[in-house]
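In the laboratory, one determines a bound structure by crystallizing the protein with its ligand and collecting diffraction data. In a computational setting the workflow is compressed into a single prediction: the sequence and the ligand go in, and a structural description comes out. We illustrate the idea with adenosine-5'-diphosphate.
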Amino acid sequence: MKVQIETMNRGAMMVATLHGELDHHAAENVRGTLDREIEATKVDCLILDLRGVTFMDSSGLGVILGRYKKMQAISGELVVTSLSKPVERLFEMSGLHKIMKIYKDRETAIKALKEVTK
Amino acid sequence: MKTANSMSMTFSALSENEAFARVAVAAFVAQLNPTLEELTEIKTVVSEAVTNCIIHGYGEIEGDIYLQCKILGDSIELVVEDHGIGIDDLDLVRQPLYTSRPELERSGMGFTIMESFVDEFAVESVVGKGTKLRFKKRIRTPQSATHHEV
Ligand SMILES: Nc1ncnc2c1ncn2[C@@H]1O[C@H](COP(=O)(O)OP(=O)(O)O)[C@@H](O)[C@H]1O
Ligand SMILES: [Mg+2]
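The predicted complex, in C-alpha cell form:
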C-alpha cells in the first residue's frame, strides 16, 4: 500500500497532503517524494497536512522529523496540520509536539504563516 | 473452562507484510469487540514489533517472522518473534529515542510506544539467535465481558 501525496504550491509555501497508512513500508516513498518536491520548488515553508493518514506508527514519526530537519537545514520551516487523535498521541509521546508547530487544519496554518512573513 | 482461541502465522520479513500483519491481528481480535482506540493500539504494537524484526532483526538478510495471538477471556496475548541478530543490551534499546539506525531516520520510539499500549510486555533475546516479544492486553470494553460470558 502506498501513501498518496498531493502537493500544492502557494508562493514560498507548499502544502503536502498525505493519504494512507504511514508505516515503514510507505516511509521511503514519502521521504523521496517530499525531498524531491522540497528541492525542486525551493519553498521555505512546508505544511504537512495529515488529514488522510489513517494509520501511523513510529516510522511515520521518523519521516516527519527527518523532513523537519531538512527544512531547518535550509533555514525553512515545517509545520503539521489535521492530526487524528492517535497521531496526536504519538506526537505527544515522542515530544514532537514540542519541536514543531501543529495546527488544526491547513487554512489555520496558512493564515498563521502568512502573518509571520508579513 | 473454555480453551483459548488462538492463531499463528509465519510470514516473510518484508515491509509489504507490515500492513498484512496488523490487519490480520486486528481481524482476529475483533471478536472481543475492542474500541477503535484499543484496535489502533493493537495495530500499532503489531506494526512496531514486525517492523523491528524486518529492519533490525534481519536487516538485509532474508528470514521469517513468527506471530501468535491468543484470546484468553477478555485479554489478548501476542507473541512476535524473529530468528535474526538478537539484542545485546535490552536496557539500552528500551530507552525512549534510542535507535541503532539513525541513518535510516528511525525515531527510536518503537519500544516506548509498544510498552505504553499494552498491559504487560516482555522481551527475550539471544545475540545471534533472535528476539521474542510477548504482550498482554486486556480489552476493557464492557460489551466484551458480557459477550464472552454468554
Ligand atoms: N527484533 C530486533 N532485533 C534486533 N534488534 C532490535 C530488534 N528490535 C529492536 N531492536 C533494537 O532496539 C532499538 C530500538 O528499537 P525501537 O524503539 O523500535 O526504535 P527504532 O526501530 O526506531 O530504532 C533498535 O534501534 C535496535 O537496535
Ligand atoms: Mg522500531
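The CA atoms of residues 122 and 134 of chain B lie 5 Å apart. Keep in mind that any predicted model is a hypothesis to be tested, not a measurement.
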